[in-house]
């Protein structure tokens, strides 16, 4: 009997020992996973901070914008472009050698009706100050901006396959990318730039990961892996900027959005020379339905001597240039120009987003209601602005977003475009 009691006690001791071991292992595993989580969190924090340090150069002066943006006035020679290894010894070109000769005078007051006169437009941060000479205004990137991106590496970049391919009616391509367009385009020649006056609105965005933009595209190469693109216009992108403001933006890529290029000044590439306009900053004021209409004018052209692609905003602001070495196909000329709107539809199962394009109204509603591009022009080989020949139009789903072209004496070649997205005919 006593022997049994002894074996029972040793069994209990053994079980207790096993239990203690299990608890110890459990604690060890928990602390290890906690440490791993902590180390991955601190790794991410470190990565984000390093990226912010790279992007946010030491300012000469800082301006707080009414919309919450911080605009840093950074010395022109310290801007992000010069992080590029090929630009280490670059001499900044302070003005283009050539400027395209144009068809339309932007200062011309349209005689048609007073409602069609355009109004001056600026950026919101101007109300609180301006940057000194020899500096450029850069919208400061905040920690939250980077954290909203899918990864630090993808911050400030577009997703692959966001370009409208007019000849492709391949529904798989449309559904795969989730991007929808309503554009006018020309192809079949060599183009050395493009211009447009773009009506500015503040479209409503359904989901924070969607956007709505209106821009021009300067394109070279195929629509495969080697596409070269320079883009500029206005956009509403809660993911990129953290709000629903309408903002001026640019973009470039030399490999179809894979590894090169970015929005605005969020990577090295574009060299800014202008101290008054900030890429990515809010545009003010914007057009209102059946009320005042506001336009921005954008011109992009290739300098025939240096080969750089220059950008001008409005009449007065030559913003800067993309050095020609950034590109392969565009180092020579563009083979296609597109103008128009783009939205992201992230709704699953064939449903449609209610994210608006342009004003959110269809083209047939006309002036004061629908959004438009007017005086669209291209730059030819002699550096002259010309009316585009043989304009095509393209939209994936015209019941959701549409485009209609026209031509008259005051507006030259123009088109109305856009739409509400989800509606009874676009379920």
UniProtKB/TrEMBL annotation:
Domain of life of the organism encoding this protein: Eukaryota
Signal peptide coordinates: 1-35
Presence of the UniProt keyword Signal in the record: yes
Sequence ranges assigned to domain Neprosin PEP catalytic in this UniProt record: 173-427
Species, as recorded: Dipteronia sinensis
One Pfam family per UniProt: Neprosin
UniProt keywords, alphabetically: Signal
Name of the protein: Neprosin PEP catalytic domain-containing protein
